[in-house]
Please model this.
Amino acid sequence: MNAVAAMSPAEVWVSPRTADEPRAFTGDEFVRGAGIAYVLFQPIGALVFSVGMILEVSPGAQPNVVGTIFGGALLWLVPGLLVSGLVTLLGMPLAYLLGRRMRRVDRDWIHVLAFFGYGLAVGLAVEYVFSIGSGNPFGTLLQPWSMMRADSWASGVVVSLGWLITSRAALARDRQGAAVALPPSANDPLPPTVGGA
Model:
């Protein structure tokens, strides 16, 4: 009995990727990628928020760097977790469409750039929404330092990393599934080694 016959139907991995669509994905893989991006954003967002607090201290003041970073991370917890969670949920439909549109593109770097651009655009859109309350919706875009603009770049990085990590894991699962699903060919010129090398 070969390895596939011994497996239950639930254990046999059938990849959504084909020669025509080498970067197709399942719903689970998509949700996993979004979750990875969300989780990665938390420490990066907290750090950017803390550094922003240090840089926005009045000139000549000597901030307690360690205390400010720790305090900034604590201040980030509730609004950062909630806002980035909401943004992740609201951004998922367009990210899904982008992934579906690019399922025929096999080059990692094109996907990484596309998802970086998407994450950056979402981050800038969030910055714009938050800056409306200041009375100057484009004000933060013109400042030399903007916490939110830095978070926009961070958003681009984590969205592209979410795609990359998930894609690599999916392709590795495909290779592992193919190794299990394809028994050695009877015409294989190299017979299996018995008793070690």
About this structure: Residues 1-5, 182-197 have pLDDT under 50 and may be disordered.
